[in-house]
Amino acid sequence: MHKFSGCYTAMITPLSNSYEVDYEGLSTLVEFQVREGVSGILAVGTTGESPTLDWNEHNQVIEKIFSCAGENRLTIAGTGSNSTKETLKATRHAAQIGIKAVLLVDPYYNGPSSIEIRKEYVEPIAQNFPDIQVIPYVIPGRTGTQLYPQDIATLYQLYPNVNVVKEATGNLENMRLTRSLCGKDFSILSGDDDKTFEMMNSPDIVAAGVISVASNIAPRTVQNLVQAIKSQKINEAKRLKTALQPLFNLVTIKTIEETPFGPVLCRARNPLGFKTLMRILGMPSGPCRQPLGKMTKAGLNIVLDNARKVYELNPEILKPIENFFDVDLQERLNDKKFWKALYYD
Prior knowledge:
This protein is about 45% helix and about 15% strand.
């Protein structure tokens, strides 16, 4: 079983302008991640637009990432859904091609209880695929339900292959309870870039690393952040966290937009902000699939302001993009032609 440590990139799925998966662009992105030293890659998570890829595309994207990443980088397959039957089928495909770890998001919308998630969802996968690490993904803000620490501990006690969780509750007490119930050998991975420092540095959580969105753009720096925390180089870790914060700000972008009937809150959620920035920077990305769409103008300005801040204060974070993709980032961040089509008029 893989010993989790470091940065695992929750990879975007690049699309063409006609909304088809860009497999060539995907290969290029994986090569960039591997060169920049990440510990692994998550294929077809939320950031990879799992809700709008059909299962054939799911499987093909997982295959492509697995083949390009090679044996020295862990590929985690996002095989979770709100149907255990679908999840079993997707996990079977992943196992057949050689995948060693799968991510199971809590079943969304139909909202089973924690006991149901354990008994009717995670257990069937863990039982049927004992050689695959099964990673529950707890993110109640998106799913409307939650696998609780008590049921995670029960799973860990029953199934050696359920020995890690992706934690995106944002609730530090929940994380502390998971650590207390599961013990020191169980792995907790941060599912929120902006919580990674606190989760790893807290002695009663001791996260092993992060499944990161920001590492789509800054893989080496996020990996360096994780390694600095693990090595207890806390001042360096704080410096890196501060340098990366503008990218962390882009996971959810909130603006107030005026309509003829009054103001409304607009929340541009992951992966829209990051895919928009990647398009501006000249990386394979493309649009998001509907019903995700574009940024508002105010939202786009937030993306640009944060990206410019990173480029101006810590250019070394973005320099690998400039070198690998052969782009001029100063030009791309300041010339409107690179983003004029990326927001609603």
